């Protein structure tokens, strides 16, 4: 099973996500994420044996408790890229500072600690709360992406965060399909 832990955006923001993606229209080499699948990944666990699900669930429950994070609202807005504007592989919209970013970071750090303590790999990069809008397969549209990221700072929307989800990514010919396996209330 290919697993990850996420905070999902509600369906009410699907149209706003699509509108944010439209700002990059015409940038060749971009492959957009389906707006209804956009989420904040707290931790990618990768291939995981089904018999380890209990360990994952225990880690998430402990992480939520340890983080002290309770239900909160988050605002998604502004654009960024990974790893840099010179070499773009991912185009994203961020979670705004002061509007859920600290809570998501605290959750991600606690999840990383608890899953690592149970034998899952530890993250080697600093967590940046974001939703992936597109992946850049080649550099043909790089200049357009750079310009939009530098010049535009849209608000995508604010949404309530009440749970963390354990999800399975099922790879298909049409792209990944995400299935929620378990929900953990904050």
Automatic annotation (TrEMBL):
<keyword id="KW-0378">Hydrolase</keyword>
<dbReference type="InterPro" id="IPR004175">
    <property type="entry name" value="RNA_CPDase"/>
</dbReference>
<comment type="function">
    <text>Hydrolyzes RNA 2',3'-cyclic phosphodiester to an RNA 2'-phosphomonoester.</text>
</comment>
<feature type="active site" description="Proton acceptor">
    <location>
        <position position="130"/>
    </location>
</feature>
<comment type="similarity">
    <text>Belongs to the 2H phosphoesterase superfamily. ThpR family.</text>
</comment>
<dbReference type="Pfam" id="PF13563">
    <property type="entry name" value="2_5_RNA_ligase2"/>
</dbReference>
<dbReference type="InterPro" id="IPR009097">
    <property type="entry name" value="Cyclic_Pdiesterase"/>
</dbReference>
<feature type="active site" description="Proton donor">
    <location>
        <position position="39"/>
    </location>
</feature>
<feature type="short sequence motif" description="HXTX 1">
    <location>
        <begin position="39"/>
        <end position="42"/>
    </location>
</feature>
<protein>
    <recommendedName>
        <fullName>RNA 2',3'-cyclic phosphodiesterase</fullName>
        <ecNumber>3.1.4.58</ecNumber>
    </recommendedName>
</protein>
<feature type="short sequence motif" description="HXTX 2">
    <location>
        <begin position="130"/>
        <end position="133"/>
    </location>
</feature>
């Amino acid at each position: 099973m290919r697993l990850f832990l996420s905070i999902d955006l509600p369906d009410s923001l699907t149209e706003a996500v699509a509108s944010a993606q439209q700002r990059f229209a015409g940038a060749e080499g971009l492959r957009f994420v389906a707006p209804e699948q956009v989420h904040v990944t707290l931790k990618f666990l990768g291939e995981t044996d089904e018999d380890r699900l209990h360990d994952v669930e225990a880690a998430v429950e402990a992480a939520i408790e340890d983080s002290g994070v309770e239900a909160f609202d988050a605002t998604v807005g502004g654009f960024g890229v990974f790893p840099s504007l010179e070499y773009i592989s991912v185009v994203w919209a961020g979670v705004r500072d002061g509007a859920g970013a600290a809570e998501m970071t605290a959750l991600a750090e606690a999840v990383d600690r608890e899953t690592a303590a149970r034998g899952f790999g530890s993250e080697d990069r600093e967590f940046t709360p974001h939703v992936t809008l597109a992946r850049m397969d080649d550099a043909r549209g790089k200049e357009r992406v750079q310009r939009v990221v530098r010049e535009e700072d849209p608000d995508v929307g604010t949404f309530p965060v009440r749970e963390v989800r354990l999800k399975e990514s099922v790879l298909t010919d049409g792209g990944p399909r995400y299935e929620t396996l378990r929900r953990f209330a904050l």
